[in-house]
Design brief:
This protein is an alpha+beta fold and 301 residues long. The protein has two domains: 14-106, no CATH class; 118-299, no CATH class. Helix content is 48%, strand content 14%. It contains eleven helices and eight strands. The protein has helices at 14-35, 39-63, 72-82, 118-138, 143-152, 165-169, 174-184, 192-203, 227-234, 272-284, 288-294, and strands at 92-97, 101-106, 162-164, 206-214, 219-225, 245-248, 251-255, 297-299. Strands 3-4-5 form a three-stranded antiparallel beta sheet. A three-stranded antiparallel beta sheet has the order 6-7-8, with helices on both faces. Strand 4 (206-214) and strand 5 form a beta hairpin. Residues 111-117 have low confidence and may be disordered. Bound molecules: zinc ion. Zinc ion is lined by residues 47, 86, 88, 90, 106, 108-109. Residues 47, 86, 88, 90, 106, 108-109 line the site of zinc ion.
Length: 301
């Protein structure tokens, strides 16, 4: 008797077709903006396309029974596997549920969906937007050129707004932050109480928010500098100023640096480490939070 081999020849599955359609849509949208040279729109389009493809991927896995809950941890896994991140440094979150429909929102491109810290968040997002426009207009992609150009044009100075640490540290538990700093310094030196006291003093200081461009990741990173560092930047004296606070990927980070006996927190940490952290995150596919932590930055918000 002749046996007819039964081949699995069902053609494309729905999920595969969805992926193909999504990829074509991304290519078309990106090529249109690239040809017209609009960097800012390109980033927004890439961000939207990334969120759409994440959504398709998650929805098709849900339909085929591979996942049944969508937590931020699950989303994080898909972001890692698909390498789908916001090119403007926003962070993604889930709104809704698998059962009743969901969206992936971007902290940068969807406005502020995450609530809280509205004031300092809009200061940094305005700064990022201004710097991206400047880069676009002058075709710049090197940090020293971007910083130089930013401070040579008085029209941009208004984006370097005054910021107070109190707004940022509002709702931050200084005790656990002090503990984390001590732990990251291998528990050396003074006690948690003295670090906490140092943080209290730091919290009452005033700073300016200025831009740094991470060439390793293509991200604009706003950070806080003292008035005197700001004056130096304005004179073109330094393009890698020290700071203890910066804003990356929709989150605020604080540096663990302390004085030699770990009793007083330091404000003299070089921002170049942020570039290394973001480069490492990209190369080794680490989360931004993990890579930043390796380079001594603690996520505080
Ligand atoms: Zn985005």
């Amino acid at each position: 008797m002749k046996r007819v081999a039964k081949k699995n020849n069902a053609g494309f599955t729905l999920a595969e077709l969805l992926v193909v359609v999504a990829i074509i849509a991304i290519l078309v949208a990106v090529s249109i903006v690239i040809f017209t040279g609009r960097l800012k729109e390109t980033r927004a389009t890439v961000c939207e396309a990334n969120r759409n493809s994440l959504k398709h991927h998650i929805a098709s896995d849900y339909m085929s029974g591979e996942i049944d809950v969508l937590t931020s941890g699950v989303l994080e896994e898909y972001i890692k596997v698909d390498e789908a991140v916001c090119p403007s440094g926003g962070s993604y979150s889930v709104v809704g549920s698998l059962e009743n429909g969901f969206q992936i929102e971007c902290s940068y491109h969807n406005g502020d969906g995450s609530g809280g810290d509205e004031g300092s968040r809009s200061v940094v997002t305005n700064l990022i937007e201004a710097v991206e426009n400047l880069m676009d207009k002058k075709k710049l992609d090197k940090n020293y050129k971007i910083v130089k150009s930013f401070f040579e044009n008085p029209e941009y100075w208004k984006y370097a707004e005054d910021v107070s640490m109190i707004d940022l540290f509002n709702n931050v538990d200084l005790n656990s932050l002090a503990k984390k700093i001590k732990e990251m310094n291998s528990n050396k030196g003074g006690d948690v109480e003295s670090l906490k006291k140092s943080l209290e003093e730091y919290k009452n200081k005033k700073y300016k928010v200025v831009p740094y461009y991470s060439e390793g990741s293509g991200t604009v990173v706003p950070y806080y500098v003292s008035e005197s560092s700001y004056e130096k930047l304005k004179k073109g004296e330094n393009d890698h100023v020290e700071s203890s606070v910066c804003y990356v990927d929709g989150h605020w980070y604080f540096n663990k640096e302390t004085n030699y006996n770990a009793t007083v927190i330091s404000t003299t940490y070089k921002m170049t480490s942020v570039n290394d952290a973001l480069k490492k995150a990209k190369e080794k596919k680490l989360t931004t939070k993990d890579a930043m932590e390796e380079y001594g930055w603690i996520q505080i918000k």
